[in-house]
Design brief:
The complex is a heterodimer of chains A (264) and B (295).
Chain A lengths: L1 E7 L1 E3 L6 H10 L9 E3 L1 H18 L5 E9 L4 H10 L3 E6 L6 H12 L6 E5 L10 H9 L2 E13 L2 E8 L2 E8 L2 E5 L12 H6 L6 E3 L10 E6 L8 E4 L3 H15 L5
Parallel strand pairs in A: 1-4, 1-6, 4-5, 5-11, 6-10, 7-10
Antiparallel strand pairs in A: 2-3, 7-8, 8-9
Helix pairs in contact in A: 4-5
Chain B lengths: L2 E6 L5 H14 L6 E7 L8 H11 L5 E4 L3 H14 L2 E10 L4 E6 L4 E6 L5 E5 L15 E7 L10 E5 L2 H7 L2 E5 L6 H13 L3 E4 L1 H5 L20 E5 L5 H4 L7 E6 L5 H4 L3 E4 L2 H17 L1
Parallel strand pairs in B: 1-2, 1-3, 2-8, 3-7, 4-7, 10-11, 10-12, 12-13, 13-14
Antiparallel strand pairs in B: 4-5, 5-6
Helix pairs in contact in B: 2-3, 5-9
The chains are: A alpha/beta (264), B alpha/beta (295).
Chain lengths: 264, 295
């Protein structure tokens, strides 16, 4: 039996926030995005799906994988955890947390839950869009004395003590058989959207209970945010109407000729 | 102040690490006091950046700040060393002032810059990946420590296959890039843009949603988690210009944006903004280029 805990986070689509709102956030030091829908962090979602694929692959080898999912965030994650339960996650947990820019604290509260399970594999996306620290999985690996592999794009079962891991690091692709336990930090993986449960799966998991934890806030030890700013990358832009595609293409073509990147 | 820089010869490579750290130090007026080269001797096998951080722990015990390159390995070493020394870590740093104990990085998908006050030393930071192309070393390097890393965790390897990725270097060095964005809406439209790029002699790239949809290969990814490019000309087709993507094309001399939404962020950040259907305009551009080739 291989036990896998997936850590994931719900987050807003920050690309939907206007520049005026960002400016206001920078000026006032706070951001109110309650009107925006949340979705699973993209690399966390890949990790959740890859764990399900790992479980599927185990079924063909006589091995068994038990899956757990835990989310530490402010967002309402209940329906997502119910979906994960329907898909085959045996245990689910929500840890209430508002400190999305403090990776030290996030890793601490996640580790507090995870140590109860003593998993063989901890799976996390490589970073949140909010903090983008790429630190939480590494800090958990340090806390548990586990090896952390970053940039993971796939993992498959070998036996109860080893798995095959594929990962990308600084322009190279690695494929190796690694010993457990491991922290797997999921990188960009195409076509790994979370599968949709069937009605039968949803009905079968109807009685699933989600554990909810309200952690105590420890004293902060890391770097402290003192303010926000906006980076201005605007240029002297020439706007043209492209409703006539051929005319617009001609303007671009002439510009490419002038810039010397194409030849007549 | 004792400020160490770590050059990663194993994963990111010596040249890239040096350029990245030197540009970062120069931009922030930081004089480096020690240069630590993380390298491997002979054919000894090194497993993870975390192991290298373990070796660095004693070397950096008296440092005020340790600067790592903004590579995958550099980030992991910075966080690991910060955790092990109970110092302060920060990744993808764009500004740092050791005298003032401050550092800044982009947050909220690159939409804001957060300014931080650093606390416990050593401050273990990795430079943002966008720093580069500087050859002049900041400050005087008076000591060079060579870390000859033996395979102390080699026993964990049962087998390992390493493959070099191909087109990442091509994008980084390309002078003409055509980048496909999610606004194209479907795989066929992205393929059309890639075909036009190839006909024009440009390197094709893509935004993150495009590669996550499987519409373009992962090694064509442009942005903070892909290639940081510096082309003479970059055309974006259907890309909104989200900061995470724009960071990968911001160094371009000329940016030509094609987008149906004239208020998309990429438009004001480009030199030529074309409001229209990106697939139709790129198809028309392809006809012009092929027409010239046929003549």
């Amino acid at each position: 039996m291989i036990t896998i805990i997936n850590c994931f986070k719900m987050e807003k689509d920050y690309d939907k926030v206007s520049e005026q709102e960002w400016q206001q956030a920078a000026d006032e030091g706070k951001l109110d995005l309650g009107y925006l829908k949340s979705k699973i962090n993209v690399t966390d979602e890949s990790g959740l799906e890859l764990s399900l694929r790992f479980q599927d692959a185990c079924a063909g080898t006589g091995q068994e994988a038990q899956l757990e999912a835990v989310s530490a965030g402010e967002e309402n994650v209940t329906s997502t955890l119910q979906t994960l339960a329907a898909l085959g996650y045996d245990r689910t947990c929500r840890i209430c947390n508002k400190e999305e820019l403090d990776p030290g604290y996030v890793s601490q509260i996640l580790a507090g839950y995870i140590e109860e399970t003593d998993p063989d594999i901890i799976v996390c996306g490589d970073s949140s869009a909010a903090g983008s620290s790429k630190a939480v999985p590494i800090l958990m690996a340090e806390r548990f004395g586990m090896r952390c592999i970053s940039g993971v794009t796939d993992f498959t079962p070998v036996d109860d003590e080893h798995i095959k891991v594929v990962y990308r690091r600084d322009g190279r692709l690695y494929e190796e058989t690694a010993s457990l336990p491991l922290v797997l930090m999921i990188g960009n993986v195409g076509r790994t959207y979370l599968r949709v449960p069937t009605l039968k799966q949803r009905l079968a998991s109807a009685g699933h209970e989600i554990k909810v934890i309200e952690p105590d806030r420890d004293n902060h030890k890391g770097a402290v945010i003192t303010g926000f700013r906006i980076e201005n990358n605007n240029r002297q832009t020439e706007y043209i109407d492209g409703s006539d595609a051929d005319a617009a293409a001609r303007i671009i073509y002439d510009r490419l000729l002038r810039e010397g990147v194409i030849d007549r | 102040m004792r400020i160490y820089a770590v050059i990663d010869e194993i994963w990111a490579g010596k040249t890239w690490s040096e350029e990245n750290i030197t540009a970062f130090a120069n931009a922030n007026g930081i004089s480096l006091s020690h240069l630590i080269i993380v390298r491997v001797e002979g054919d000894a096998e090194v497993s993870d950046p975390g192991d290298a951080a373990g070796e660095l722990e004693s070397l950096c015990s008296d440092a005020d700040m340790v600067i790592f390159p903004g590579s995958d390995a550099g980030r992991q070493m910075a966080v690991t060393l910060g955790a092990r020394t109970e110092g302060t870590f920060m990744t993808d740093v764009i500004e740092a002032d050791p005298e003032a104990a401050t550092a800044s990085k982009k947050v909220f998908a690159g939409n804001l810059i957060a300014d931080y006050r650093l606390s416990e030393k050593p401050w273990c930071i990795s430079a943002d990946r966008s720093f580069g192309e500087t050859s002049e070393l900041a400050g005087q390097t008076d000591i060079e420590i060579r870390l000859d890393k033996e395979s102390n965790h080699g026993s964990r390897f049962h087998d390992r296959i390493v493959t070099e990725e191909t087109s990442a270097e091509g994008l980084k060095n390309a002078k003409f890039i055509v980048a496909a964005g999610q606004g194209l809406g479907r795989a066929a439209a992205v393929q059309k843009v890639i075909d036009v790029a190839e006909a024009a002699g440009a390197q094709a790239g893509a935004s993150r949603p495009v590669v996550m949809n499987g519409w373009a290969p992962m090694n064509s990814l442009i942005g903070v988690s892909g290639a940081i490019t510096s082309a003479d000309v970059c055309i974006t087709a259907g890309a909104s210009g989200a900061p995470a993507f724009f960071a990968g094309i911001n160094r371009s001399t000329t940016i030509i944006a094609i987008n149906s939404d004239e208020n998309a962020p990429v438009m004001a950040r480009s030199d030529l903004a074309v409001t229209g259907d990106a697939e139709e305009i790129m198809t028309a551009l392809g006809r012009l280029i092929e027409g010239e080739q046929d003549e």
